[in-house]
Design goal:
Elements lengths: L2 H30 L3 H4 L2 H21 L6 H14 L3 H7 L3
């Protein structure tokens, strides 16, 4: 695997972590939103939720740090063509 492929893979992994954390925050805000007025923090949650939602959906459609699914699929296809036994090793691993 080339160094540029490793960097793209690491950037994609970081993007997934950011996306999971922001999705969790969006879920938490959506749960707290109905009760926010009684807690006295309604102004902040009302503004944070749409911003966080736009951030999450932009990451889903555009990709975080510019790593697209096409780039990742190209890396996988190149690795499989260089090492045909890679599929067997990957199938034996539980993720």
């Amino acid at each position: 695997m080339e160094q540029s492929d490793v960097k793209k893979y690491q950037a994609a992994r970081e993007g997934l972590v950011v996306l999971k954390r922001s999705s969790l925050a969006m879920l938490l805000i959506s749960i707290l939103l109905p009760f926010s007025h009684s807690l006295g923090v309604s102004q902040y949650l009302i503004y944070m939720f749409p911003g966080l939602a736009v951030f999450v959906f932009a990451n889903i459609w555009v990709g975080y740090k510019g790593v697209s699914y096409k780039d990742l699929l190209n890396i996988i296809e190149r690795q499989i063509s260089e090492d045909p036994k890679a599929i067997q090793r990957l199938s034996q691993r539980d993720t």
